[in-house]
Amino acid sequence: MKRFTLFTFCLGLALSVVQTSATVQAQTPAETQSKKSIGLIDMAHLFKEYKKFADKRDTLRNEIKGSDEQAKAMAEKLKTMQVQLKSGTFAEGSDEFNQLEANLITGATQFEAYKKTQQQRFLRSESKVYKEIYLEVIEVVGTYANYYNYDVIVRFNRSTVSETDSAQDLITNMNKQVVWHNQGIDITDQVLKFLNDRYQPVAKTATAPATGAPLK
Question: Under CATH, which architecture does the 34-203 domain have?
Answer without folding.
Answer: 2-Layer Sandwich (3.30)
